[in-house]
Amino acid sequence: MKSRYVQLLLGFGISVALVASLLRIVDLGAVVTAIGLADIRLIPLAIATYLIAMLIRSLVWRRLLPVTLTVSTFALLQMVLVGFAVSYVMPLRVGEIARAFMLRNRAGVNYGTVIASLVAERVLDGVAVTGILLLSLLFLPAGRFALALGGVLGVIFVAAFGVLMVAAMQPERASRLVHLVARLSPVQRTKIDRLGQNFVHALEPLRDWRRMAWLLVLVTMGWLCQFAVFYLLMLAFNLSGGFPMAMLGGSVANFATLLPSAPGFVGTFDAALIKLFVEIQNTNLNAAAAYALVVHAVLVVPVVVLGAFILWRADLSLGQVLGGARRPAVANAETVPAGALGSATRAATRSVVMS
């Protein structure tokens, strides 16, 4: 619990420091003027494109869940929107807990299976975004920072992907390792063991190489669709660089959200995007700040509004979707230690965060 408070304070501290630094160097009047001169007709198209990216994410998630699941892709899309909305407005990026609860509440899927699908999704995200970042460097003089970032994160995500694949291909050994770890736990050994065994069993979709190749293609398509949002808004602000710059900016900005920050990734996302455009494209600082602000708003505001609307229609509160209060329909649902679920989902969301 103490570590959570430290992470929360650190995140707010970093966000405040970055925002304060930006406010010292930008001309707010010029930023507002740049926004006023932008072609706002492209903003609705950018929002629609982002929602298509979310739909593709839902398709990926569906393919990482058991084939016997009867929940529709549209229902999963609603859960994805709620998950991202919660991550945008709540500290510590707890949106994945909301997704896990909603799927458990809707279809009775055990938490181990849900967590496995979310971890696999995040690792695939990391591999795809790293590949896109490195691809963009073939067209742009991005410098050492972006190259080092892509190389380091590439190693990390490829290693994580390898671990998941080994666990998927060797389920018996993975299960024995989980059982051993559970036995060493001082508390709630049975629940931790059951959670871990369900996690290992849920990695079965990764055993089919052809299915895995299709998943990687689908994930990459989703990210390219999301980076099309960055490109459309570049056109709105008449910024140079083309789609390669949109890929690079989107990749770096999203990886910047791995840093601790306030809810909504305030400061980290914006500072990385501004710095990149100023240094690589020699974009005017105020124009870059205006662009980053609008991109951030387009990625966050519609999702928060839709997520809130979905929760309202479902008669659910934030406390319920975060596991604080369960509806009668799941009174007998499998429970899991809050620490175990929180640790697993935080580990998953640290890998890469869609902004």
Can you characterise this structure?
- The structure is a single chain.
- By secondary structure, the protein is an all-alpha fold.
- It has one domain (2-351).
- 76% of the residues lie in helices and 0% in strands.
- It contains 15 helices and no strands.
- The chain has helices at 2-25, 28-37, 42-64, 73-89, 95-107, 111-136, 143-169, 171-184, 189-201, 209-236, 242-256, 268-281, 285-313, 318-321, 338-351.
- The chain starts with a helix and ends with a helix.
- Residues 324-355 have low confidence and may be disordered.
Which key terms come to mind for this protein?
355 residues; mainly alpha; 15 helices; globular; disordered C terminus
Describe the SSE topology.
Layout: H1 2-25, H2 28-37, H3 42-64, H4 73-89, H5 95-107, H6 111-136, H7 143-169, H8 171-184, H9 189-201, H10 209-236, H11 242-256, H12 268-281, H13 285-313, H14 318-321, H15 338-351
Helix pairs in contact: 2-13, 3-4, 3-10, 3-13, 4-5, 4-13, 5-6, 6-7, 6-9, 6-10, 6-11, 6-15, 8-9, 10-11, 11-12, 12-13
